Amino acid sequence: MEYRRLGSSGMYVSEISYGNWITHGSQVESDAAIKCVRAAFDAGITTFDTADVYAGTKAESVLGRALKGVRRESYELFTKVYWPTGTGKNDRGLSRKHIMESVHASLKRLGTDHIDLYQMHRFDYETPLEESIRAFEDLIRQGKVNYIGFSEWTADQISAGLQIQKELGYNRFVSSQPQYSALWRVIESKVIPLCEREGIGQIVWSPIAQGVLTGKYLPGKKAPAGSRATDKKSGSAMISRWMRDDVLTAVQKLQPIADELGCTMSQMALAWALANPNVSSVIMGATKPAQVKENVKASGLKLSSDVMKRIDQALGNIPETDPAKTESPNPRA
After folding, report:
1. What's the predicted TM-score (pTM) here?
2. Catalytic residues, which ones?
């Protein structure tokens, strides 16, 4: 495993992180989840990403149990706030009330006294941005949070937040957590250039495009039984946008490239995202320890400029590049 600095901060993260968005507490039972976390540690992964909303708050609890007894200083723990965690009108968004209540609940579920990176899970159009930023600053000063970041913000939203932090002399954002893969490149034109200038590193989710870039989905054929595309609890709605014959046909053209490199399609997809110098870490999920052991082999895999060009040629105009696709749905709708 290789390690990278998180943006311009002094904290290092494993360039492959372990995330439990749609696995722990939902797709995978607790015992299996704990085995995956242990396999991640054995493979050199030290960065673990979750969120209060995952599996209806259960994911944080499972991760907390999996990390119990592990030296706290030996890993970096990330979580987030924004999406509904209850039925109340204030159980969502980025109000000071919800942030403060959510962070304490997350700390309890995770079984720790501090979070290494706390992230605004989307942009809240109803709460004054300064209110949210003040709450995050207070958490840093209280010692409950070490660093702060955001997920799926546009370049304009990032700039607005940075301006407030600058004017008030507050700690700055050090991370952005966007969706990013060879198929989804909406951050490349605006978000990444801004983040490079401002010292903000990307911690990208879905670098394998919900599993499509593994090559296991074939054009003209039904999705394999038990795969994410067939499981309504594990993101089948999101992966549906890629389940088109033109996309799947283009992805199959990547297999010969991976074969020449002597790696799997998954490993190449992870290495593709890591080839972007603004990416600090890519998040991978797993339902079995074997998947962890296989995917971590992408760490240190360097793709030449020629290989990157061939990947672009194989995918053609399939990848999404429109920056307007970055959205923050209203959690109160």
Report:
1. 0.93
2. 54
Residue 100 CB neighbours (<10 A) = 16
Which residue in 57, 151, 92, 81 sits closest to 332, CA to CA? 92
pLDDT 10s digits, 243-278: 899 999 999 999 999 999 999 999 999 999 999 999
Exposure string of 192-210, with b = 16+ CB inside 10 Å and e = fewer, is: bebbeebebbbbbbbbbbb
Tell me how crowded residue 97 is: count the other CB atoms within 10 A of its CB. Answer: 14
Joined tokens for residue 303: 């793709």
Handedness of CA 37, 43, 46, 51 (dihedral sign): negative
The residue behind tokens 């030296």 is: 71
Q: What is the dihedral of CA 120, 121, 123, 126, to 10 degrees?
A: -90
HEC string for 255-294: HHHHHHHCCCHHHHHHHHHHCCCCEEEEEECCCCHHHHHH
| Structure-token pair, residue 276 | 């972007």
Hey, what domains does the chain have and what are their CATH numbers? 3-325 (3.20.20.100)
What's the pLDDT tens digit per position in 164-210? 999 999 999 999 999 999 999 999 999 999 999 999 999 999 999 99
